[in-house]
Amino acid sequence: MKIIPVHLPAGYLDGIDTLIDRDLYPNRSEAIRMAIRDMLKSETRNFKKKTD
User: Fold this and answer.
1) Could you write out the DSSP letters of every residue in 1-52?
2) Which of 25, 31, 29, 26 minimizes the C-alpha distance to 4?
3) pLDDT for 29
4) Burial of 22 (0-12, 13-18, 19+ CB in 10 A)
5) 2, 11, 22, 31: least surrounded by Cβ within 10 Å?
């Protein structure tokens, strides 16, 4: 894995920290990885539908 710096609004971090506090994710990195994975799946699916 590569490390990249990311700037997020405080509200986003508060939301991520709430999810961690509720034991939905073990840490910020994992929560952000899952969010990016889900976005890529969704966008890829949408892209494929548009090209069909």
Assistant:
1) ---------HHHHHHHHHHHHTTSSSSHHHHHHHHHHHHHHHHHHHHHHHH-
2) 29
3) 97
4) exposed
5) 2
Which tokens sit at 17?
């920290």
pTM: predicted TM-score of the whole model, two decimal places: 0.80
Q: Per-residue pLDDT tens for 5-45?
A: 999 999 999 999 999 999 999 999 999 999 999 999 998 88
- Give the Cα separation of 49 and 52 in Å (integer): 5
pLDDT of 46: 74
Give φ, ψ of 41 to 5 degrees. Answer: -60, -45
